[in-house]
Structures are given as C-alpha cells and as structure tokens.
Amino acid sequence: MDSQGRVRNITDLARLAGVSPGTVSRALADSHLIAKKTRDKIQQLAREHDFRPNVMARNLRIKRAGAIGVLIPLGHETGQHISDPFFMTMLGHLADALTERGHDLLLSRVIPKDPDWLNRVVDSGRVDGVILIGQSDQIDVIEKVASRYLPLVAWGANLPGKNHCSVGSDNRKGGQIAAQHLIDRGCRNFAFFGDPVAPEIAERLEGCRAALALAGLGDSLSILPAHLTAETAHPAISKWLDDTQSIPNGIIAASDVIAMSALRALAEHGVKVPGQVHVVGYDDLPFANQTVPTLSTVRQDLAAGAGHLVDLLFRRIAGEETGSVVLKPELVVRQSS
Amino acid sequence: MDSQGRVRNITDLARLAGVSPGTVSRALADSHLIAKKTRDKIQQLAREHDFRPNVMARNLRIKRAGAIGVLIPLGHETGQHISDPFFMTMLGHLADALTERGHDLLLSRVIPKDPDWLNRVVDSGRVDGVILIGQSDQIDVIEKVASRYLPLVAWGANLPGKNHCSVGSDNRKGGQIAAQHLIDRGCRNFAFFGDPVAPEIAERLEGCRAALALAGLGDSLSILPAHLTAETAHPAISKWLDDTQSIPNGIIAASDVIAMSALRALAEHGVKVPGQVHVVGYDDLPFANQTVPTLSTVRQDLAAGAGHLVDLLFRRIAGEETGSVVLKPELVVRQSS
DNA sequence: AATTTTGCAACAATCGATTGCATAACACGG
DNA sequence: CCGTGTTATGCAATCGATTGTTGCAAAATT
Q1: Same domain, A149 and A197
Q2: Where is the HTH lacI-type domain (chains A, B) (predicted)?
Q3: Given an 8 Å threshold on Cβ–Cβ distance, is A119 in contact with B291?
Q4: Taking all residues of chain A, what is their mean pLDDT, rounded to a whole number?
Q5: How many domains, in total, are found in chain B?
Q6: 8 Å CB contact of A89 and B106
Q7: Is B43 an interface residue toward A (CB < 8 Å)?
Q8: What pLDDT, on the 0 to 100 scale, is given for residue B231?
Q9: Distances from the Cα of A258 to the Cα of A78, A84, A179, A221, A253, angstroms
Q10: Domain containing A233: what range?
C-alpha cells in the first residue's frame, strides 16, 4: 500500500492479511479452495479498506473485456450528429439490454476516413464484441471484418450476397407498404426524400418503385437524394419545394426525422397536410405522434431490434454462427396521410 | 503467432522482425531510440499482418484507461428509461466532446441499490474519470466519493455546502423566470409538476415559490410531486386533472418531457393552451418547438454544458481542483404561454 | 592508435490480477 | 508412530504491453 495506507492491489491486501496474493485472489472470488474462515477474513478486510480488484488487469489475464463496442458509422453523412433521435433511441435500448447482461457499453462515434476504423476497434482488445448502428456506406469494410471476426452484428439491411450478421426491418416491404398506402389514398405523383447511398434507404426506395410500378405509376416518382440530417433536411426540402414545378401529392420520407422537417417545410409553404399532400415517414420514433399533424409512418420495432442484436451478439461471442434477423415493418396511420 | 500464422502480440511481431519485443514497442510508438530503417521495417510488417497492440495491456502498464465513464443515476425514478430525451441529448453532446479528445465513452445506466455503485465504477480501473448525468437522490454518495476522487463531475445542481464539481443551470433563477413569466401573462393560480426529491427540481420549485411570494401569490401553488417520466407523466397528470377541483391557469413543468405530457393531457381534457392555461417547460430539448402548441420553456444550453463538463473533467484528471460552473437559464417564449 | 562519444537494440522489471502445480499442515486409521 | 489422504496455502508463470538500464559496436575525437 502507498504512504497513505491505501490498499491498491491484492498484494497490499495479502500483506495485510498475512497471506499470499493468490490466496487473496481466490478468496475474493469466493473459491472453495480457500477455507471459509480465511475467505471471510479477507473479504472483511477488503470491505474495510474498500478495495476492489482492478478490472483491467483481470480482463487482461482472463482475456475478456466486459464491454461491447457500439459504433455509429457516419460514412455518407459527415454532418450527422450522434444525437440524431434514431441513434439515440436505439442506443437507449441497447444500453438497457447490455446492462442486463452485465456488460458495459463502449460508445464511439465513427467517421470512417480510413478503411481501418473497424479493425481498430475490433483488434484493440477492449471489447468482446461490436454492434454497429447502421451500415452507412461501409458495407465492404464490414463484410471484410465480419469474415474473420465472429462477434459482430449490425443494425441495417440484410443484403443479398452479403454475409455479415444483421438485424433490421424488411426495408423493401416497408417502402412498398408506404407507397401502397399513398396510392390507396389517391396520390398519383410521388417524391422520395432520402439518400440511397445507405443500403437500407436504397431498399426502401426500391420497395416504393415496385409498388408504383405495379400500380402503373412507375414514372411518377421524383427523388431528393440529399444527405438528410435533422439539421440539413429542412433547408434542402425548402429549396426543393421552391424549385420544383409541381409539388407531388404523396411524399415518402426515408426517416421520421426527414418527414418531420418535410412537415415543417410544407407548412411554411402553405401546403396543407394531408389536404394537398400526404406524408409518410419511416421508423416510428417516439416523437412521431407528437408532430403536427401526427406522422403516419412505417414502424420498426427498435426495442425488439435491440433485443435481437444483443441476443445474436452473445450467441456469436459464444461461438455460434448465427443468421440474420429481418423484422416485419408495420404501417402506422396517423394524421399526415 | 498461432497455428494460423496470425500475429497476436508484439512478441510474435518481434520474432518475425528478428528483434526484441521492446524494440517493436518503441518502433510502433515511433520512438527515435530506434533507427529509422528498423522502425520502418517493423511498421511495415505490422501493417502487412494488420497487427495492432492490445490496448488493455498498454493501459494496464501506463495506468490509464482511455475511457470516461458516463453514468446515469436513476435513484428516485426506477422506472426511468435511459432513452429519456434529456439524457440522450446530453449523451450525444458528451460523446462528441469526448471523441474529440480521443477518449472512449463507457456508458452505464445505474440504479443505485447499494451505496457502492459509484465506488465500483471509480475504483474499477476502467475509466480515467466519471461524468454523472444528474445527481438524482444520491448527493451523499456523490459527495463522499468526490472528496477522495478528483476526476468526477456531475450535471445538476450546484448545492450550497456541497463540494463536488457540478455543471448546471441556475435552477432557482430558472424557476423564478418561468413563474414570473406566467405572472406577467396574468396567471393567478399555479401548479408545479415534478418531484423535488431531485435537487435540481427542488431548486426550480424554490425559484417559483420565491417569484410567487414576491408577487403576493405565495399560497396559490399546488404541486404534483409524482415521479414523472416520459411514460408515467401522462397518466399521472390526467388523473390529477380529473381529481382537482379547480384547474390552475399557470403550469410550470419541471422538464420539457413532463410539459409535453401535460400538453397532451390538457388537450384531451378540452383545456385550451394558452387560452385557458399557460404552460412553461424546462430544458428546451430539440422537440420543444415541434409540439402542439410549441412549448415555451426555460432553455438550458446542453451543448455548452457538455463542453464544460468535459473541460472541467480533463482539468481535474490533470490534477487541477476546479470549481463548478453555473449556466444562465434563458426564457424561450413560444406558443404555449 | 587509443580513447571517448554516440546510436541502437536487448534485457528484464513492471502494471495487477489469475491459476496450475507443488507443498505444508493436519487428521486419521492401522 | 508412520503412511496416506485431505485441505488449505504458497509459488511462479502468464496475459501483452512499456520503459529504465545496460551492453556493444561503430563513429568521432585526440
């Protein structure tokens, strides 16, 4: 122990108890190799000096980290802030699920400049596994790492020909039911707000296209493929509304965040929702039924998603080669459509 | 290296390079004690085998963790979810600020059952410092730990007689300007929604009381001291509205989340806002200008707050005994008042 | 040519725990 | 009283890095 008499490691405590460090280690782990009397004495001593063994040293020795890395790759949207409501909602659910399993959550916002960002985390030895919230435009990097590192799961699209473990909703289906809903509402001209660089969004767009084609409305879709974040969506949409010749009567937003900005922009342009334009979002974030008008949207069950992510991850940590999970999206009709 | 020829540690790499582990360590750290030629060769080799030194081992040796613990103590509100918008917003800002300083963020939701929860994190050796988002009802525990552990900062109230380092707005002032604003709007009967068990909230309530007393309206305040979370606030407020004889004409909510629930409950009871009742929230979370009607509120600048928290924390890690920071709250008038 | 200086790299201790193996202490039956 | 068997503890290697000290050879100095 140091000059102040603080007990800093098991060796100090061992000296105090008159035993060897190994005995202390075993005693604190409640090992039956140590006599009950000795164990009690040592544990009591530890409590008195409120000593707790160093977790990092322990982890180094037993080769585990006790933490899961949660990464938010912001590849295609460098301006995107971590406090984006979607990420935050997901993160909250993950934190709960991981805490329940006795693991810590190591959070990193990542702006993948070099293709090494994921390796760096995986090989750092600080985490037992990694959860990606979104794939961004980093599919190739993710695939490459996933091929050699089992405990890696991602929220996002389950892409054909790709092997990494993912959990996400059926985006094509989601896009399709959104479009179909607008068709049913009588819309004939459509706009899609969102950047198809992200694979989930590309799939949602495809779903829309399929539904429109089926209804013989194949060429009635315009696309605003801007990088849409909470901050940038509103001006982008505003400008688009200014510039466009004919405002469509059905708008499909790639996320609720974008939809909310659209609602505000439309209101500012004096466009009535749902009178003149019908709007559908995607995600069903908590705020979706707080907007004006409340937002119709395609619901993804994020709590269930987080549960699956964590469950799959721990099975992979245990060595199992799990498959992916695709959740069923569900239309939630509110006032905006 | 193992049977597959993977390079797992500097010793493997040293063997490959025909040098000693120490030399590899220095080479990877770009130390000038190693000849440039040797350094280049080793770094090249490391790249080829994409080897990265184990961070945990490094941290153990140099006695630092490279991570900051961010804890959300949920003492008085066991039902409160980590995905509460306030926490999430704060967390987002913290993640950004910490990432900029090259530190990871170790997130823990804590339900303080035993008084040892904070010690456990602090003494675990996994973090270089701790940021608490909120003090909950754990002031005594926090004070005790803070007295021996310097790198600890908390978002919350700066309490008289308490010594731990805190960053927060002047809650009394905030409560006061909220109440004064309602008085100016002509309100004469008031209600406060929020549980004064949390010190910030107690201070906000005091501020209200002071303003009312000064205006000679000292006994016109009723209090709904329920544990108010996003989920529980709405039913609690609804019930309160059912039971109460006379609905007040000025409502001060202890947070925007509570205010939002109040708005919804009032609407459902057919009460016009701001026609019959004026409502003021607290925080100015991003959603505050998305509610119907948009929410008047007392703004706390959370981005600045997060910046201060991180700044103070790193100064404390460096050994400086910093003071606390009190931010000026600011009234934001929107439609609800 | 002899001596000092300089530059590079190896050696070994260290961070703080865990754990297989060796051993000491003790009890007990024969 | 000794051999055998438990039981409880100590010893020392180990996890994977970092770093002060030391040793050696080549370069610089006289």
Answers
A1: no
A2: 8-62
A3: no
A4: 89
A5: 3
A6: no
A7: no
A8: 66
A9: 16, 11, 16, 17, 6
A10: 171-299
